[in-house]
Amino acid sequence: MQESGEMYLETILTMLMEKSHIRSVDVAEEMGYSKASVSRAFSKLKADDCIVIDNEGFISLTEKGKGIAEKIYERHVVLSRLLMSLGVDEQTATDDACKIEHVISEKSFDAIKASIASHQ
pTM for the complete prediction? Predict the structure, then answer.
C-alpha cells in the first residue's frame, strides 16, 4: 500500500478512537485535504477492501484496513516515544515518526521494539 493510503487509514483509526462516527468531510478537515482528494483516495481504499462507507456516509475500517491502520499507528507511537526519549521535542518527534513509519522495514521496527522492551 502507498504511504498516502496508510496515512488515510491511520487518520480514520485515530478519529474513530475519539468519535464513533466519522464521514469523509471529517477526514478531509482533519488532514487538511480537499473533499475531492479524499473522495479519490476513498474510492481506492474501498476497491482495496480497506474501508466501507454506509448509506449515511459513515466510514468504517474493514479487518484488512484496521490491520494496516493499527500497524502504522503502533509504529507512529513507538517511534515518537523513542525520539522523545532521545531528547527530541514532541512536535519534531511526531513529525519525524510520521515520515519514518511508512518506510522502516518490519525487521528494523521489531528490533527497535525489542530494544525498548529490554530497557524497561
Answer: 0.87
